[in-house]
Amino acid sequence: MKNLIVCSSVALLLLAGCKNKESQKAVVDNSTPTVNAAGTKITFPEAESGRFFQTEKISTTSLMADITAPAKVSATVVRSGEGASGNIVLFDNPELSGNYTQLLQHLTMINQIQNINIRQRKTELSRIKDLQEHGAATGKDLLESQTALAMEETNLINERSAIIEHETKLKAGGFEPRQLRSARPGTAYIICDVPESEINKVKKGSKCMIQFTAFPNENFNGTIDDIADMVDQTTRMIKLRVSINNSAGKLKAGMFGTVAFGLSEGRNLSINKDALITIQGKNYVFVKIGSKDFERREVNTGDQIGDRIIAYNGLKNGDNVVTKGVMQLKGLSFGY
Protein backbone atom coordinates (compact mmCIF):
# COMPACT_ATOMS: atom_id res chain seq x y z
CA MET A 1 0.00 0.00 0.00
CA LYS A 2 2.85 2.32 0.86
CA ASN A 3 4.53 1.56 -2.46
CA LEU A 4 1.32 2.32 -4.29
CA ILE A 5 1.08 5.70 -2.60
CA VAL A 6 4.69 6.51 -3.54
CA CYS A 7 4.11 5.50 -7.14
CA SER A 8 0.97 7.58 -7.29
CA SER A 9 2.86 10.59 -5.93
CA VAL A 10 5.63 10.19 -8.51
CA ALA A 11 3.09 9.90 -11.28
CA LEU A 12 1.38 13.07 -10.11
CA LEU A 13 4.70 14.92 -9.99
CA LEU A 14 5.60 13.76 -13.50
CA LEU A 15 2.18 14.76 -14.73
CA ALA A 16 2.48 18.16 -13.08
CA GLY A 17 5.95 18.59 -14.58
CA CYS A 18 4.64 17.81 -18.02
CA LYS A 19 1.83 20.28 -17.56
CA ASN A 20 4.33 22.93 -16.43
CA LYS A 21 6.51 22.25 -19.46
CA GLU A 22 3.50 22.44 -21.74
CA SER A 23 2.50 25.66 -20.03
CA GLN A 24 6.01 27.09 -20.44
CA LYS A 25 6.08 25.96 -24.07
CA ALA A 26 2.76 27.69 -24.65
CA VAL A 27 4.22 30.94 -23.21
CA VAL A 28 7.25 30.75 -25.51
CA ASP A 29 5.13 30.05 -28.53
CA ASN A 30 2.89 32.96 -27.57
CA SER A 31 5.81 35.40 -27.68
CA THR A 32 7.41 34.16 -30.89
CA PRO A 33 6.91 36.56 -33.83
CA THR A 34 5.65 35.39 -37.18
CA VAL A 35 7.95 35.96 -40.14
CA ASN A 36 6.80 35.42 -43.71
CA ALA A 37 8.86 33.26 -46.05
CA ALA A 38 10.65 36.17 -47.70
CA GLY A 39 11.39 37.82 -44.36
CA THR A 40 9.88 41.13 -45.46
CA LYS A 41 7.12 41.17 -42.83
CA ILE A 42 7.40 40.46 -39.11
CA THR A 43 4.40 40.27 -36.80
CA PHE A 44 4.56 40.03 -33.01
CA PRO A 45 1.64 38.31 -31.21
CA GLU A 46 1.45 41.06 -28.60
CA ALA A 47 1.56 44.82 -29.02
CA GLU A 48 3.76 45.03 -25.93
CA SER A 49 6.60 43.38 -27.85
CA GLY A 50 6.40 46.03 -30.56
CA ARG A 51 6.95 48.81 -28.03
CA PHE A 52 10.54 47.67 -27.55
CA PHE A 53 11.42 49.05 -30.96
CA GLN A 54 11.89 52.83 -31.15
CA THR A 55 10.92 54.60 -34.36
CA GLU A 56 11.02 58.05 -35.91
CA LYS A 57 8.48 59.52 -38.30
CA ILE A 58 10.41 60.71 -41.35
CA SER A 59 9.57 63.67 -43.57
CA THR A 60 11.05 65.69 -46.39
CA THR A 61 13.36 68.33 -44.95
CA SER A 62 16.24 70.56 -46.02
CA LEU A 63 19.56 69.10 -44.99
CA MET A 64 22.59 71.24 -44.29
CA ALA A 65 26.13 69.92 -44.27
CA ASP A 66 28.63 71.83 -42.19
CA ILE A 67 32.06 71.83 -43.82
CA THR A 68 34.93 73.54 -42.07
CA ALA A 69 38.17 74.69 -43.64
CA PRO A 70 41.27 76.38 -42.26
CA ALA A 71 41.50 79.98 -43.39
CA LYS A 72 43.62 83.08 -43.16
CA VAL A 73 43.07 86.82 -43.50
CA SER A 74 44.98 87.28 -46.75
CA ALA A 75 44.29 90.97 -47.28
CA THR A 76 42.63 93.98 -45.73
CA VAL A 77 41.55 97.19 -47.43
CA VAL A 78 42.24 100.54 -45.76
CA ARG A 79 41.63 104.07 -46.90
CA SER A 80 44.59 106.00 -48.28
CA GLY A 81 45.57 108.93 -46.09
CA GLU A 82 47.51 110.69 -48.83
CA GLY A 83 44.61 111.51 -51.11
CA ALA A 84 45.42 108.73 -53.59
CA SER A 85 42.74 107.78 -56.08
CA GLY A 86 42.65 104.15 -54.86
CA ASN A 87 42.57 102.48 -51.48
CA ILE A 88 45.47 100.59 -49.92
CA VAL A 89 45.37 96.79 -49.95
CA LEU A 90 47.53 95.16 -47.30
CA PHE A 91 48.48 91.57 -48.18
CA ASP A 92 49.93 88.97 -45.84
CA ASN A 93 52.00 87.66 -48.79
CA PRO A 94 54.81 90.01 -49.92
CA GLU A 95 54.84 88.47 -53.40
CA LEU A 96 51.15 89.20 -53.91
CA SER A 97 51.71 92.69 -52.58
CA GLY A 98 54.44 93.21 -55.17
CA ASN A 99 52.25 91.84 -57.95
CA TYR A 100 49.40 94.12 -57.02
CA THR A 101 51.68 97.17 -56.86
CA GLN A 102 53.16 96.42 -60.26
CA LEU A 103 49.70 95.79 -61.67
CA LEU A 104 48.62 99.25 -60.57
CA GLN A 105 51.75 100.76 -62.10
CA HIS A 106 51.11 99.07 -65.44
CA LEU A 107 47.48 100.21 -65.37
CA THR A 108 48.65 103.78 -64.77
CA MET A 109 51.04 103.49 -67.71
CA ILE A 110 48.30 102.08 -69.93
CA ASN A 111 46.08 104.99 -69.06
CA GLN A 112 48.93 107.42 -69.81
CA ILE A 113 49.81 105.78 -73.14
CA GLN A 114 46.25 105.21 -74.32
CA ASN A 115 44.64 108.49 -73.30
CA ILE A 116 47.52 110.91 -73.63
CA ASN A 117 50.52 109.67 -75.58
CA ILE A 118 48.72 107.90 -78.42
CA ARG A 119 46.18 110.71 -78.77
CA GLN A 120 48.97 113.23 -79.00
CA ARG A 121 50.83 111.14 -81.59
CA LYS A 122 47.67 110.74 -83.66
CA THR A 123 47.00 114.46 -83.52
CA GLU A 124 50.59 115.16 -84.51
CA LEU A 125 50.43 112.66 -87.39
CA SER A 126 47.24 114.24 -88.65
CA ARG A 127 48.89 117.66 -88.55
CA ILE A 128 52.00 116.39 -90.39
CA LYS A 129 49.84 114.86 -93.11
CA ASP A 130 48.00 118.15 -93.53
CA LEU A 131 51.29 120.07 -93.72
CA GLN A 132 52.69 117.61 -96.24
CA GLU A 133 49.67 118.09 -98.48
CA HIS A 134 50.45 121.81 -98.50
CA GLY A 135 54.17 121.28 -99.01
CA ALA A 136 55.14 122.39 -95.49
CA ALA A 137 56.35 118.94 -94.29
CA THR A 138 58.65 116.35 -95.82
CA GLY A 139 58.31 112.61 -96.16
CA LYS A 140 60.87 112.26 -93.40
CA ASP A 141 58.66 114.25 -91.04
CA LEU A 142 55.72 111.98 -91.88
CA LEU A 143 57.80 108.82 -91.33
CA GLU A 144 59.06 110.04 -87.97
CA SER A 145 55.51 110.86 -86.86
CA GLN A 146 54.24 107.44 -87.94
CA THR A 147 57.15 105.75 -86.18
CA ALA A 148 56.45 107.65 -82.96
CA LEU A 149 52.82 106.55 -83.05
CA ALA A 150 53.79 102.92 -83.73
CA MET A 151 56.19 102.97 -80.77
CA GLU A 152 53.47 104.17 -78.42
CA GLU A 153 51.12 101.48 -79.70
CA THR A 154 53.86 98.88 -79.12
CA ASN A 155 54.37 100.22 -75.60
CA LEU A 156 50.65 99.80 -74.98
CA ILE A 157 50.78 96.18 -76.11
CA ASN A 158 53.77 95.52 -73.85
CA GLU A 159 52.08 97.06 -70.83
CA ARG A 160 48.94 94.99 -71.40
CA SER A 161 51.04 91.84 -71.72
CA ALA A 162 52.82 92.62 -68.45
CA ILE A 163 49.47 92.91 -66.68
CA ILE A 164 48.53 89.34 -67.57
CA GLU A 165 51.42 87.92 -65.52
CA HIS A 166 50.47 89.87 -62.39
CA GLU A 167 46.76 89.11 -62.77
CA THR A 168 47.52 85.40 -63.09
CA LYS A 169 49.54 85.38 -59.87
CA LEU A 170 46.87 87.30 -57.99
CA LYS A 171 44.17 84.90 -59.20
CA ALA A 172 46.30 81.93 -58.19
CA GLY A 173 46.38 83.47 -54.71
CA GLY A 174 42.56 83.63 -54.66
CA PHE A 175 42.09 87.31 -55.61
CA GLU A 176 40.23 88.99 -58.44
CA PRO A 177 42.35 92.01 -59.50
CA ARG A 178 39.42 94.09 -60.71
CA GLN A 179 37.53 93.60 -57.45
CA LEU A 180 40.61 94.53 -55.43
CA ARG A 181 40.86 97.86 -57.24
CA SER A 182 37.25 98.72 -56.44
CA ALA A 183 37.23 97.26 -52.91
CA ARG A 184 35.75 99.43 -50.19
CA PRO A 185 37.82 100.40 -47.15
CA GLY A 186 37.02 98.31 -44.09
CA THR A 187 36.88 95.03 -46.04
CA ALA A 188 38.85 91.93 -45.08
CA TYR A 189 39.43 89.06 -47.50
CA ILE A 190 39.67 85.51 -46.19
CA ILE A 191 41.20 82.77 -48.32
CA CYS A 192 40.50 79.09 -47.60
CA ASP A 193 40.91 75.80 -49.45
CA VAL A 194 38.01 73.42 -50.13
CA PRO A 195 38.41 69.84 -51.44
CA GLU A 196 37.66 69.36 -55.11
CA SER A 197 35.01 66.77 -54.19
CA GLU A 198 33.02 69.38 -52.23
CA ILE A 199 33.25 72.31 -54.61
CA ASN A 200 29.98 71.44 -56.38
CA LYS A 201 28.15 72.17 -53.11
CA VAL A 202 29.64 75.64 -52.60
CA LYS A 203 27.80 78.54 -54.18
CA LYS A 204 29.10 82.01 -54.92
CA GLY A 205 27.20 84.49 -52.76
CA SER A 206 26.49 81.96 -50.00
CA LYS A 207 26.93 82.94 -46.38
CA CYS A 208 29.46 81.40 -44.02
CA MET A 209 30.73 81.82 -40.48
CA ILE A 210 34.35 82.41 -39.46
CA GLN A 211 36.07 82.05 -36.11
CA PHE A 212 39.54 83.51 -35.61
CA THR A 213 42.23 82.35 -33.23
CA ALA A 214 42.60 85.92 -32.00
CA PHE A 215 38.88 86.15 -31.11
CA PRO A 216 37.87 82.63 -29.94
CA ASN A 217 34.54 83.72 -28.44
CA GLU A 218 33.33 85.74 -31.40
CA ASN A 219 31.75 84.65 -34.68
CA PHE A 220 32.15 86.66 -37.88
CA ASN A 221 29.73 86.43 -40.81
CA GLY A 222 31.10 86.42 -44.32
CA THR A 223 30.06 85.97 -47.95
CA ILE A 224 31.69 83.78 -50.58
CA ASP A 225 32.88 86.29 -53.17
CA ASP A 226 34.55 83.99 -55.63
CA ILE A 227 35.71 80.47 -56.39
CA ALA A 228 39.13 80.07 -58.01
CA ASP A 229 39.38 78.91 -61.62
CA MET A 230 42.08 76.34 -60.94
CA VAL A 231 42.66 73.23 -58.85
CA ASP A 232 45.92 72.66 -56.98
CA GLN A 233 47.42 69.66 -58.75
CA THR A 234 49.13 68.40 -55.59
CA THR A 235 46.44 68.82 -52.92
CA ARG A 236 43.34 68.77 -55.20
CA MET A 237 42.05 71.80 -53.32
CA ILE A 238 40.32 74.89 -54.71
CA LYS A 239 40.64 78.34 -53.17
CA LEU A 240 37.61 80.30 -52.03
CA ARG A 241 37.61 83.99 -51.22
CA VAL A 242 35.34 85.24 -48.46
CA SER A 243 34.76 88.91 -47.68
CA ILE A 244 34.02 90.25 -44.19
CA ASN A 245 33.05 93.67 -42.94
CA ASN A 246 36.15 94.88 -41.09
CA SER A 247 35.12 98.48 -40.53
CA ALA A 248 36.24 98.22 -36.90
CA GLY A 249 39.72 97.19 -38.05
CA LYS A 250 39.89 94.18 -35.73
CA LEU A 251 41.09 91.76 -38.39
CA LYS A 252 44.69 91.99 -39.53
CA ALA A 253 46.31 90.44 -42.58
CA GLY A 254 47.87 87.12 -41.61
CA MET A 255 45.41 86.16 -38.86
CA PHE A 256 44.33 82.50 -38.83
CA GLY A 257 40.81 81.18 -38.47
CA THR A 258 38.30 78.51 -39.46
CA VAL A 259 35.47 78.92 -41.95
CA ALA A 260 32.25 76.91 -41.58
CA PHE A 261 30.02 76.53 -44.61
CA GLY A 262 26.40 75.42 -44.33
CA LEU A 263 26.05 73.55 -47.58
CA SER A 264 22.48 72.85 -48.62
CA GLU A 265 21.73 69.32 -49.85
CA GLY A 266 18.23 70.31 -50.92
CA ARG A 267 14.95 68.87 -49.63
CA ASN A 268 14.99 65.09 -49.29
CA LEU A 269 13.69 62.25 -47.18
CA SER A 270 16.38 61.18 -44.75
CA ILE A 271 16.84 58.47 -42.12
CA ASN A 272 18.96 58.18 -39.01
CA LYS A 273 22.21 56.33 -39.71
CA ASP A 274 21.29 53.76 -37.00
CA ALA A 275 18.21 52.73 -39.01
CA LEU A 276 20.18 51.42 -41.98
CA ILE A 277 21.47 47.89 -42.45
CA THR A 278 23.41 46.58 -45.44
CA ILE A 279 23.16 42.98 -46.64
CA GLN A 280 25.06 41.77 -49.70
CA GLY A 281 25.48 45.28 -51.04
CA LYS A 282 21.81 46.27 -50.60
CA ASN A 283 20.48 48.76 -48.06
CA TYR A 284 17.41 48.10 -45.92
CA VAL A 285 15.34 49.70 -43.18
CA PHE A 286 12.44 48.42 -41.09
CA VAL A 287 9.15 50.33 -41.00
CA LYS A 288 6.54 49.91 -38.27
CA ILE A 289 3.22 49.56 -40.08
CA GLY A 290 1.04 48.67 -37.07
CA SER A 291 1.20 48.17 -33.34
CA LYS A 292 2.61 44.64 -33.85
CA ASP A 293 3.73 44.66 -37.51
CA PHE A 294 7.04 45.58 -39.12
CA GLU A 295 8.03 45.65 -42.77
CA ARG A 296 11.49 45.42 -44.32
CA ARG A 297 12.11 47.79 -47.21
CA GLU A 298 15.00 48.20 -49.58
CA VAL A 299 16.16 51.81 -50.06
CA ASN A 300 18.58 53.64 -52.31
CA THR A 301 20.71 56.00 -50.27
CA GLY A 302 22.59 59.20 -51.01
CA ASP A 303 25.08 61.26 -49.03
CA GLN A 304 25.36 61.13 -45.26
CA ILE A 305 24.89 64.56 -43.69
CA GLY A 306 25.89 64.38 -40.06
CA ASP A 307 23.76 61.59 -38.55
CA ARG A 308 21.28 61.66 -41.44
CA ILE A 309 21.38 59.63 -44.65
CA ILE A 310 19.41 60.68 -47.72
CA ALA A 311 16.91 58.01 -48.86
CA TYR A 312 15.82 58.34 -52.49
CA ASN A 313 13.17 55.63 -52.73
CA GLY A 314 11.46 52.88 -50.75
CA LEU A 315 10.06 55.30 -48.18
CA LYS A 316 7.46 58.05 -48.02
CA ASN A 317 6.56 60.96 -45.80
CA GLY A 318 5.12 59.82 -42.47
CA ASP A 319 6.73 56.36 -42.39
CA ASN A 320 7.78 55.21 -38.91
CA VAL A 321 11.32 53.94 -39.42
CA VAL A 322 12.86 51.78 -36.68
CA THR A 323 15.97 53.30 -35.09
CA LYS A 324 16.39 51.03 -32.04
CA GLY A 325 16.15 47.26 -32.15
CA VAL A 326 17.19 47.15 -35.80
CA MET A 327 19.63 44.28 -35.22
CA GLN A 328 16.92 42.12 -33.62
CA LEU A 329 14.63 42.69 -36.62
CA LYS A 330 17.55 41.99 -38.96
CA GLY A 331 18.07 38.59 -37.28
CA LEU A 332 14.40 37.71 -37.62
CA SER A 333 14.14 38.96 -41.20
CA PHE A 334 17.28 37.37 -42.61
CA GLY A 335 17.61 34.47 -40.19
CA TYR A 336 20.94 35.63 -38.71
Explain what the structure shows.
With 336 residues, the chain is α+β, with helices and mostly antiparallel strands. It folds into three domains: 33-61 and 267-334, conserved putative lor/sdh protein from methanococcus maripaludis s2 fold; 94-172; 183-265, Beta Barrel (Elongation Factor Tu (Ef-tu), domain 3), CATH 2.40.30. It is 36% helix and 36% strand. It is built from six helices and 15 strands. The chain has helices spanning 2-31, 47-50, 94-133, 139-172, 177-181, 326-334, and strands at 34-35, 41-43, 54-57, 60-78, 88-91, 187-195, 207-212, 215-227, 237-245, 256-272, 277-279, 282-288, 293-305, 308-313, 320-324. Strands 4-6-9-8-7-10 form a six-stranded antiparallel β-barrel. A two-stranded antiparallel sheet has the order 3-15. β1 (34-35) and β2 (41-43) form a beta hairpin. α3 (94-133) runs antiparallel to α4 (139-172). The longest helix is centred in the middle third of the chain and has 40 residues, at 94-133.
Indicate the topology.
Blueprint: H1 2-31, E1 34-35, E2 41-43, H2 47-50, E3 54-57, E4 60-78, E5 88-91, H3 94-133, H4 139-172, H5 177-181, E6 187-195, E7 207-212, E8 215-227, E9 237-245, E10 256-272, E11 277-279, E12 282-288, E13 293-305, E14 308-313, E15 320-324, H6 326-334
Antiparallel strand pairs: 1-2, 2-13, 3-15, 4-5, 4-6, 4-10, 6-9, 7-8, 7-10, 8-9, 10-14, 11-12, 12-13, 13-14
